[in-house]
Every structure is written in C-alpha cells, then in structure tokens.
C-alpha cells in the first residue's frame, strides 16, 4: 500500500519506524528530575506524528484507494467489523492509532503523577500496563491516588453534613430536650400552639410520644440527648486533617472529650433501656414489642430470634424472639460504638510521638478505630435520612404509611439500614485512608 504524499514509501517501510514509539516510552520511564520538559514535548510531538499518519492513511483508504475497504465493512454489526479488519490498510491504520493513543495516555500518566507527587515506582507499573493492556488499565491504576483522596473528602463532607443535621435536630427540632422544655413551660401566646401544630404534622411519620417522651426524663436528656450535640460538633474537628497535622494538642484534647462524651451517652442509653423508653417498648402501644419490626423483611427478626433461642439452648428469647433479637442488635451496636472509642483512645496513647515504626502502626490503628467510632455514631443520623426518604417515597406513590405498623417498620428498618450503611462506608474509608498513608510515605521516600 503506498503512503499518500510519500511516493516510493510503503506501509511495510513505515511499519519499522513505528518502533520509534519505544523511545517515547523510555523517556516517560525516567524519573521527573531526570526528564527535561522539552523531552515531554518531544513525546507529545511523536504521538501527534503517529496520529497524523493514522488520519492520512485512513482517509486515503476510505476515499481515494479503491478496493482498500472490502464490501460489507462497517461498524453497525460484528460481520461488518470483521470485514473491515480484513483490509491491510485498515489494520495498519488501527495499529498506528493504538500506538499514538497509548503513547498520549502514557504521557498523561507521567505528567499527572508528577503533579500529584505519586511515587515513580507506581508510574513504572502503570506505563507497561498502558503499553501492553491499553490505556484503561494503566490510567485506572495511575488515578488510584486521586480517586482515593476524592473519596475520603466525600466521606468527610458526608460526615460533617450529618453532624450538622444532628446538631440542628437535637437543638431545635420538636421533641428535642431544649425545644420541648421551652414549649412545655412557656405561656406566651402562639408559641405553644405552633409547637403543637408542628408535632401534629410529625405524627404522620412517628408517634407523638416518640418525640415528646424526654420531657419527663431530664436525666436522659442530660446524659444522652444533649451530649450528642457536643459529640456531633466535635467529630468534624477530630476528622479534619489540617487540625490533626498542625494542631496535634487540640486534636488530642478533642479526642479525650469525645471519649468522655461517648461514655456519658452510653450511660444515657442504658438509662433509656432501664426505663423502657425504646421505641418498640414505649411508643407503639397497639403493637407487641416484636411485632412490625420490619417492612422490608417482616420474617427476619422472628427468624433470627428463633435461631438465637435455639443456639442458647432455650435460655433466651422464649417469650418474644423478634423483640429479643432486635434489642440484642441495638445493644451490640451501642457496645460497639463505645468500644471503638476506647480502642481508638488506647492506640492514640500508644502511638503518641509518631516517630518509631511501632508508633506509626499504632497511629494507623487509632485512625481506623476512630473512623469506626464515627461511622457507628452517625448511623442514628443516617436513620433520620432513611425515615424521611421512606415517607417521602410513600407520599410520592400515594401509599398509606401513617398507620402504627408502617411507622414502626420504617423506623426499625431505617435504624438497621443506617447501622449497616455507616459501618460499610466506614470500612471503605479505612481502606482508602490506609492507601493514602502508604502512598504518602512512598512519595516522601522518593
């Protein structure tokens, strides 16, 4: 096949010159400090030259060379593509296209890795993958660092938003300790009526008693509800990377306060349990404790309760297996939340100084358990989001979800899904955090 504009030169002659792309790959394999900027420009020029050759050969084959493209060729069917690649001209053009695009992708990986301070060893792994397996595989690995950082920032944004929501919820929402006390004691005209009207509108989502029961339980408010405002306000500070790096004393003090607040809230949770203020005990009097604990899977909690009754040789859950299983789940989640705070504090103390390898390992573990603690705590805020979304879905589809069974099932399902969702996202954040730390250490070593 003659090359357009290059008389006397065939595709066979040019095929050998395509190996010049290896010079470009060799330049990209050099460390950034050894690679002048003009060398990167030469790689770009080489890729552009191959792209021009690809365009010229393809246009010449399609429009000027008769018989170069077999009959029935095209991209509309598999047979058409097979016929297309029976052409020597098309195969040559495709090979030039592959070389040009891969070299351009390799240049992007090298330049972007230099900007993001990705260790050069990682780049040396990405470049051969791009050359032999194609750009998607190499670029995927090359962008891993940026994706990890972006995902961590997303998790931090979600956690901060949920914390802000809980501060507003506990401080101002009807049924919270502060608002309910004010509304119960005030006699100013209009305020109490507005408050009661708001409660009536909320009764379509949860029972009236569920948002007012803490009026007469001041100790629960002092130990559990109000401290949650402090916990939600301090969590974004504790997770902030800048504070952790530049204000380590503040980071440690906030951590100690969070552990103390967590202990207080756990005592308040025990008091809620002792006084029978759980929603399935106190707020749905027309239903049994173990009745209506799920809308999505009504069979799950009774089944789990019967299994637990069998596994404990009949010592537990004999009267109401479903209620026993759900209370066990709630209790395990609360204990897990407190334990994660204690373990995070333990590893923070062991890793103080962060100089030796052992201390750095303790700091890694401290961050992991701190993320688990935050994730477990935010499951309550996530429950509120799921409740609102569920009732919004019911209204959108004109479904009746205002009866006691639906309200209780949605409330319980939202709690279960909130716990599972937050714990799962917490483990993903831990994995990303470890990846980021490892890549940062490699970058500093280089």
UniProtKB/TrEMBL annotation:
Taxonomically, the superkingdom here is Eukaryota
Where does the chain cross the membrane?
A: 14-31, 43-63, 90-109, 116-133, 153-172, 254-272, 323-348
Q: Which UniProt keywords apply?
A: Membrane, Transmembrane, Transmembrane helix
Which Pfam families did the record assign? Answer: ABA4-like
Instruction: Look up keyword Transferase and say if it applies.
Output: no
Record flagged with keyword Chaperone: no
| Record-given protein name | Uncharacterized protein
Question: Which species is this UniProt entry from?
Answer: Micromonas commoda (strain RCC299 / NOUM17 / CCMP2709) (Picoplanktonic green alga)
Source organism phylogeny: Eukaryota, Viridiplantae, Chlorophyta, Mamiellophyceae, Mamiellales
